Amino acid sequence: MNLAPQQNKNSSQFRPWLEKHGSKFLLFARQQTRSIADAEDVLQDALVKLARKVEEGSFVGGQDAWIAFIYTQIRREAIDLGRKDDRRRKREENVIKDDRSLGRDIEMPLFEGGTSQEETRQILIEGMKTLPTKFSEVISMKLWGERTFAEIGEVLEISLNTAASRYRYGIEALRKQLATARLNDDI
Fold it and tell me: How distant, in Å, are the alpha carbons of 67, 88, 129 from that of 24?
């Protein structure tokens, strides 16, 4: 089945309609979103959904119904985008909170001298060696390289959240090793 004539017909009626109403849609999208870039994205997503429905033949109504559909779809897309952004922001805030709290109750004296810390230092050195590389490299970069999770993610080609979770898991493993050593009176 050849869809080319049908696609040309749809695009030929879609272009003038979009030229006539596009600026109004963008203004509405801008009012629904937090930035012009988000407004453009939301409008594009709404237009793509309309185009797919028209192309499939599942859209009921003519061009007059397209207007109502686009306004409704812009609003829905903007709400979804806002929720997604809020969830991402909360995740990032939790990472920052974890960054501030993790490791504060554990001393990491690998570069400090002194006989009182020598046993802890040895346990941590051995602990870092036994950790999976993906955890130990993030811990090293974070604590001694003084890198942010974003920088670590960029270097290791992983997301910021993945870097933060690897740091959390690694620190937790080191805490468990230190707690075991304390229970065994090794420290």
Answer: 10, 30, 61
